[in-house]
Amino acid sequence: MKKVEHKTKTFLENWLQKTVKQYVVAMKDHENGQLYDLILSGVERPLIKMVLEETIGNQTQAASILGISRNTLRKKIEEYNLR
């Protein structure tokens, strides 16, 4: 299990490094690029959507898989309009 986690983390870190580098180069002349919000919403929404699809909408199971409370998941579902 640890090897899989390490490979996934490495893949995500490599992808993020490439993506952030491109974004920073493109945004050098702008003061408010909102990179933090862009990355979080760009990853969080599809992640929650995919986990909900895999759990056939079972919010308790999805929250457990995501490692967040069911109330937090419900807020995110509303925030991202994932009905």
Which descriptors apply to this entry?
single chain; 83 residues; mainly alpha; 4 helices; 0% strand; flat
Please sum up the structure shown.
The chain has helices at residues 2-27, 35-54, 59-66, 70-79. By secondary structure, the chain is mostly helical.
What does this structure look like?
The chain has 83 residues and is an all-alpha fold. It contains 4 helices and no strands. It has helices at 2-27, 35-54, 59-66, 70-79. The longest helix is centred in the N-terminal third of the chain and has 26 residues, at 2-27. It is flat, with a radius of gyration of 16 Å. It starts with a helix and ends with a helix.
H-E order = HHHH
Judged by helices, strands and strand pairing, the structural class is mainly alpha
Strand percentage lies at under 5%
Biggest beta-sheet profile: none
Q: How many whole angstroms does the radius of gyration measure?
A: 16 Å
Q: What is the overall silhouette?
A: flat
Uncertain parts: none
Number of helices: 4
Number of strands: 0
Mean pLDDT: 87
N- and C-termini, Cα separation:
33 Å
Helix content: over 70%
Note the topology.
Blueprint: H1 2-27, H2 35-54, H3 59-66, H4 70-79
Helix pairs in contact: 2-3, 3-4
